[in-house]
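Write out this protein's structure.
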Amino acid sequence: MDQPETPHAEVVEDDRLEAREALSSRLANIWWTFFLRGLLAAGVGIAALFWPTGSIALLLQLVGLLLVLDGGLTLFGFGRRGAVGGVGIGTIVIGLVLLIWPEGTARFAFVLLGAFALITGIGSLLTWRQLPEWDPERVTARNAGVVALLIGLFLIFWPGTGLVALGWAIAFAAISLSAMMFWLASRFKGANERLKTKVINPR
């Protein structure tokens, strides 16, 4: 008869445990920023599905506003230093370009949206490389980075042209980003609880 499975536990030293608790607490404290970004992206994605093609410039300004807010939330959650800070600043720059010059960027919007997704993916992968192997959210950062990179490459090489295709591309990118942000929010919100089930303090 098979023995019932028991939760996996890991014994760690005190200093290492404190580092893990600090990191998990930080992730748990900023989960709402990912949830808010998911809500904003979902709103833009749904709007893009029904947006009239004659006012595509206004839609691009809405996307620009989303990117500025997204970059601001990234800087608020992780600070301006390091690779993640660079991701936040790059996102804000792309958002400002769309806000200030939507008519001129309409033909390059596919590339700009793809660049935003690539920046997000690279930032997540850099975070994955920097996180210690014992961190419970290391795999989450890696998976999010891979998904964002695939979305970015898809947008950059999108075969469609014209305003209708641009609207669909914006909807696809925003809804995909929203799903990823909701997933990250759910993972980070429970970071502390997952740490407690995996760690035994040797004291």
